[in-house]
Amino acid sequence: MFMETCNIMIVGVGGQGTLLASRFLGKLFVDAGYDVKVSEVHGMSQRGGSVVTYVRFGDKVYSPIIDKGQADYIISFELLESARYLEYLKEGGKLISNSQQIDPMPVITGSAEYPQNLPEKIHALGIDADIFDALSVAQEAGSSRAVNIALLGRFSKYFNFPEEAWDAALQAVVPPKFLELNMKAFSLGRRA
């Protein structure tokens, strides 16, 4: 069990399911007996803008906010969002990121270009990064909307929690009609 507080940032683009992901992790850690703080969504969640949520757990957690250089993990739903929030990762922290690229508004309008070779640039910084195609995993499970759960499946490999605990938390936060799809996305993400 963690003694000190563990800090997890979830970053993405509005509409990708960052809030569901943070609720899923919050439920998992509460059920495991930790004190947990989950932040609200920060950002333009309704407009396709950058979105951040924080999940902090430990013996006693006093604030839901994570400052620069404090994140043990960053779970990123989109590649540019990974790069945008790297300064929040602590030394020795881990980035788990979807390799998907979603053009932000400046790229769409032609006033900017999407940065090239981001995975290589991230690795060149010495970041411990697990970057994989979560979109393909989600599509294999049956829906591109399951990227969030595929990423959490991948993230689960780095935590020593029993599989039943992950399953129970997922069942608690996902509506029954989407449960089978999400269970499959989680399992495929874990094995990807």
Q: What does it look like?
A:
- With 192 residues, the protein is α/β, with parallel strands linked by helices.
- The chain has a single domain, classed as 3-Layer(aba) Sandwich (Pyruvate-ferredoxin Oxidoreductase, domain 3).
- 40% of the residues lie in helices and 23% in strands.
- It has 8 helices and 7 strands, in the order βαββββαβααβαααα.
- Strand 5, helix 2 and strand 6 (89-98) form a beta-alpha-beta unit.
- Helix 1 packs across helix 7 (163-173), helix 5 (134-141) packs across helix 6 and helix 6 (147-156) crosses helix 8 (176-191).
- It is globular, with a radius of gyration of 16 Å.
Notable characteristics:
192 residues, 8 helices, seven-stranded mixed sheet, alpha/beta
